[in-house]
Amino acid sequence: MIxxxxxxxxxKELKQEVIEIRRHLHTHPELSFHEFATSAYIAGQLANxxxxxxxxxxxxxxxxxxxxxxxxxxxxxxxxxxxxxxITEKNEVDYKSKQEGVMHACGHDxxxxxxxxxxxxLSALKDEFExxxxxxxxxGEEKLPGGASIMIREGVLENPKPDVIxxxxxxxQLPVGKTGFFAGKYMASSDxxxxxxxxxxxxxxxxxxxxxxxxxxxxxLVELEKFSVKLAAAKIPTVLAFGKITGAGATNVIPDQVTIxxxxxxxxxxxxxxxxxxxxxLLDEVAASFKGEITLEIRIGYPCLQNNHVVTELSVNAAxxxxxxxxxxxxxxxxASEDFAYFSxxxxxxxxxxxTGNPEKNIVSPVHTATFxxxxxxxxxxxxxxxxMALKLLSS
Length: 396
Description:
Strand content: 25-35%
Strand order of the largest sheet: 1-2-4-3-5-16-6-15
Helix content: 25-40%
Number of domains: 2
CATH superfamily of the largest domain: Zn peptidases
CATH architecture of the largest domain: 3-Layer(aba) Sandwich
Oligomer: single chain
Structural class: alpha/beta
Distance between the termini: 11 Å
């Protein structure tokens, strides 16, 4: 087995280069399924390092291979996502986003730059290990149907087929130098809810014949809130929330319809299907007490993310060896969703968190905020840790 000291030395030597890669990606963010410049930049780095790769998977996705001795012995896949979010950055840094209204607010610039650093480490060591490392740079994690599902459909898990797969995610609530794991069902499924309440609009001063959909929508939201309280009391972690309501009327104009948008999340696929039925019946009951019409569209999103117990245990042990036992923590479930869940349905998987926060530097903002940032010292940790975990899985 390659020594921890050797990997740590390589990650230390690469630190500044990985930081510069991350800053380039951060400065030039691109939205889901439009990561054209990002993909070209990553492919260029791989080409400069003579790492075999293929582009154009799921549009902008990239797959690379690092073959050690006896490459068919075992294959470990490592995945990073590339897309940014429609958020205007508020950080005042030299590498601030140059794309108005677009920002790497979920750390995918960190994930991609870190995986590039890991790739360079493993490429330098390829004569010292057996098996193959498969690198997956994935588009569109932030937007349905999710780039992972498209890449899988286009054969990313074939030729060669991985035995296991790993991915990491930034976590500012965890200090730099630490990492976190959870075995089993770790992240929730996620469905988008689109409700339309139809009535009959008109002039507010002439109420005869008007069916005001705003009143129906208000009653419906009250009933949905009661329903969400019941769901929260269930044994299975579940979230039902609504964040947008639109009734395009005016002070004296009653609209014809109101739309409501929300999310449904849970940690159990069977209960997910049952809850969809309960939700439809609730809307039917409310609609029956009014003259208006209520329709519901459920856009099925990502499934639950399942961390394989064996792979997670092996990864935890490797992390303890690399960082020390005190720097490896057990996480709780996370009700956010991730399209890495599709990979976890196909292969034994481990999705873990890498500490990127530093309260002393005021780096505490969570993901999906305009002030999200990381302590870039995390990039030295993340590159070496993933390289070591991958090698340990190859040899297990």
